[in-house]
Every structure is written in C-alpha cells, then in structure tokens.
Design a protein that fits this description.
CATH superfamily: Transcriptional coactivator/pterin dehydratase
Strand content: 15-25%
Distance between the termini: 31 Å
Strand order of the largest sheet: 1-2-4-3
Number of helices: 3
CATH architecture: 2-Layer Sandwich
Shape: globular
CATH topology: Gyrase A, domain 2
Largest sheet: 4 strands, antiparallel
Helix content: 40-55%
Number of domains: 1
Number of strands: 4
Order of helices and strands: HEEHEEH
Length: 97
Amino acid sequence: MIEPLNETERADALDGLPEWDFNDARDAITRQLVFADFVEAFGFMTQVALIAERMNHHPEWSNVYNRVDMTLTTHDAGGLSSRDIELAEAIDAIVGD
C-alpha cells in the first residue's frame, strides 16, 4: 500500500516543485502548460504518457488545443504520495524546468 505524504514531507516536496500548485481540497498538485500549438501539446502528452505507463502512475489531465491541465494525486493513498512527486519531477524535466 502506498502511503500519503505527511505534512512535512509534502512541504519539502512542494518546495522542490515551484511550478506546481497545491490543491488542499484534493490533496493534489496541479499545473497548466501552454504550448505553441496542438502538435507540441500532444507531443508533450505522448512523452508523459510513456513515462507514466512505465511508472504505472497516470495523471488526471485534459488538453484543449495548446493547453494541458494536469492534476497529480494517488487515489490508492488517498492523497499526494511520493509517486506524484516523482511524476511531477519527470514532467518538469521534459518541460525543462
């Protein structure tokens, strides 16, 4: 069973993810990215999809033209877990943050 992050772990993790916002109501992190066009947005989503599949941890996300909205939380843990932080870091590496 995957455990949710405690308050200290969550705060430390969020310090390392300045581009992500914490959603207290969902115990999740969110981020919106805007790309030049649909092809660039979809290419990004394809890269993330491959990583997420390897991790067996998938984002909640949506895409409208050049915008991608993402929410990361671990349903099995009932909130934010180390898996979300790892996926957020991988996403940031793709974007170049």
